[in-house]
Amino acid sequence: MEFELTEEQEDIKNAAREFAEKEFTAELGRKIDEKYEFPWMLYRKAAKLGFIGGSLPEEHGGQGLGCIEDCIVAEEFNRVDSTCAHLLSGIGFAALVPKFGTEEQNKKYVPRICKGEIVCAMALTEPNHGSDAGMVGLETTAVKDRNEWVINGAKTYITCGEEAEFVMVCCQTDPNAQPPYRGVSMIIVEKGTKGFDTNSLKPKLGFRGAPQAELSFDNVRIPLGNLLGQENRGFHQIMSYFDFSRIPIAAGAIGIAQGAYESSLKYSTQREQFFQPIANFQVTQFKIAEMATKIETARLLTYKAAWLVENKPEQRRLVTKISSMAKAYAAKISKEVTDEAIQIHGGVGYVDSDIERHYRDTRINDIIEGTGEIQKYIVARECYREIGFSV
Amino acid sequence: MEIIVCVKHVPETAEAEIAIDSSGKGIKTEDLVFDINEWDDYAVEEAVLIKEKLGGRVTIVTVGSEDADKTLRKCLAKGADRAIRLTDKAFDGSDAYATAKILYGVIKDLPFDLILTGTQAGDDGYAQVGVILAGFLGIPHATMVKKIELMEGFTRVNRELEGGLEQVMEVGTPALLAVQTGINEPRYVSIMGIRKARQKELKVLGLNDLGLKEEEVGESGSWITVEEMFIPPVEKEAEILVGGLDAISSKIVETLRARGLI
User: How many CA atoms lie within 13 Å of A144's alpha carbon, on the beta-carbon side?
Assistant: First the structure.
């Protein structure tokens, strides 16, 4: 049993850390936070160094790396500044293209993503449907009309929806399918297509470097060839993708927690109360011990999940279960650790520091790519399945 | 162009908590992060820039333990072509003179048009290895170099002097140039670079490979011995200014000016 990164992974970790420590200034983080701006400049710089598209295939300009490397980069970036790290949201779902797309779709989009020229988005959530999208069916529909799809409906909370050059839109293509998720397809809609409109959503608590938008589709006509993957298999595609895409989300949450923990550790040795550093008080020591333990636990779970994706992909159910555990747990402890970091910093943590921003930023991790509750449902479902009981 | 760059794997001490080790002659390094010496990073970048412009090969040489591979891999990822690590128990305790001799042991048999080093190392600050190495090789050198222009048979370099002065001089090649920080902007390590570095040669040589004797290196081959290392006590001297706001502010300005701080 080994708990060490390989030499190459160690080098990637150092490279990501060095890049982030020099480029992700708190000042820049604050600016992005205030202006709700996607950090294009950082995105392009990161792309030039191969941090964008690390796990995208080499033949299309990616680095051909795996889930572990994606986690390393996500953790290191978020450790330094959770808002600057939002640059990673621009590629959140890009891997769907090489996984399910045609050669033509790959050639058209993936190299431009790897170069940092464009970002993309995936749209599943609707005003009336989020976690229940698969069970109840989608209101956004796509109907075939000769050689085109005609899309109507609305999506919301779509990360980088406005910035995206193309959006992979989940549409109900078979309204009679039972259960409804058997009638969902993914269709690529490009920016600027007639009838496709976006509207940026604000104010929001945090996660502001990854602007979210509502999208509307009014008789949007798309060539049939823009179908991504198989017709009526869109929901399966998304779910199988979530199994590994949620792991770097967990790693990002751990990175935020790690950064907040390191600040707290240092601050507690400097801040004096009752004529001594607060680190001398056992109440502070216990907080630090709890924070460190939670981070380490979440990290072990997350990297185990990433390791499973790379080494035991055939154990699909196990990957699903452990990756859901990792995402739910990492998001939870990241909220707790950043909360405790504010407590250790006191007034300084609440008002005049970046801790409060990291605290706001990590909150989204318990909602995106499946809420904590949905993750727990998945874990429980798999646990019961193991004893032959269906929930 | 054949360029050799000498680098050192050093602890980052600028922002770390420093403690003296039990020998009293060094610092505790177990909790420190090691990386390429800052000055050497600029030397590597300069070498890679020259290679990208004129073609050729960049060879990195270091004296150090296996840990130094981290620094060597970093240099390879940034574009150097091969690396040589000189490692031997006998090398421990070498001063600048002995270190230069070890480097000479391998470099004398390598082809080169230019040797680049950092002006100094961040840990011991001797700023001697490059100069002594040039002496062993019998080639001209320049230190504190902040600009390099390569000509036919010589190089024109700018040296950074105190007080914002710059000196331009011509140095016959092959030469050794010890570069100053700020000569360029060292690139970041890219994932592409890391992947390419895996294919590049990283050779390890020891005392026997260099044709050196044990007494020529390490403490016995050194000219300098460290007596003691200590952290100077922090002086706490405060002057309380009294009087009106104007009087106090003029006094502050006066004090800062007298110390050359403004």
Answer: 12
Total residues belonging to chain A: 391
Closest chain A residue to B199, measured at CA:
A8
Task: Tell me whether residue A267 is in a domain.
Answer: yes
Q: How far apart are CA B105 and CA A37, in angstroms?
A: 56
% residues pLDDT > 70 (chain A): 100
Label residue B238 by pLDDT band (50, 70, 90): confident
A to B CB pairs, distance under 8 Å: 44
Question: How far apart (Å, rounded) are the C-alpha atoms in residues B9 and A314?
Answer: 43
Q: Which residues of A touch B16 (CB under 8 A)?
A: none
Task: Say how many domains are in chain A.
Answer: 3
Question: Under a CB-based contact definition with an 8 Å cutoff, are residues A147 and A105 in contact?
Answer: no
Instruction: Report whether B54 contacts B150 (CB < 8 A).
Output: yes
State yes or no: cis peptide before A248, omega within 30 of 0: no
Question: Catalytic site residue A369?
Answer: yes
pTM of the model: 0.92
| A85, A139: one domain | no
What domain range is A100 assigned to?
Answer: 7-114
Q: Which residue of A has its CA nearest to B76?
A: A11
Say if residue B17's pLDDT is above 90: no
Residues A51, B77: C-beta atoms closer than 8 Å: no
In a mutagenesis test of the A interface, which of B188, B199, B202 is the best target, namely the one with the most A β-carbons within 10 Å? B188
Closest Cα of chain A to B189: distance in Å?
5
**Can you list the domains of chain B with their CATH numbers?**
2-216 (3.40.50.620)
Same domain, A66 and A126: no
Q: Is A290 a domain residue?
A: yes
Residue A150 shares a structural domain with residue A194: yes
Residue A217's CATH number: 2.40.110.10
Contact between chains at B191 and A22 (C-beta distance less than 8 A)? no
Domain match, A103 and A33 both: yes
- Which residues of A fall within a CB distance of 8 Å from B74? 11, 14
Tell me which of A340, A356, A369, A373 is the catalytic residue: A369
| Choice among A23-32, A50-59, B129-138 with the minimum mean pLDDT | A50-59
**Whether residues A56 and A193 fall in one domain:** no
* Strand duo B57-63 + B2-7: pairing: parallel
Look at residue A134 and tell me whether its pLDDT is greater than 90. no
Q: Given pLDDT bands bounded at 50, 70 and 90, which one contains residue B243?
A: confident
Residue ending a domain, among A177, A207, A232, is A232
Q: Which residues of A touch B197 (CB under 8 A)?
A: 11
Predicted complex ipTM exceeds 0.85: yes
Residue A391 lies in a domain: no
Nearest to A18 among B189, B192, B197 (CB): B189
Question: Looking at the predicted structure, is the pLDDT value of residue A228 above 90?
Answer: yes
* Together in a domain, A249 and A361: yes
CB contact under 8 A, B197 and A11: yes
Nearest to A65 by CA among B78, B193, B195, B74: B195
Is pLDDT of A49 > 80? Answer: yes
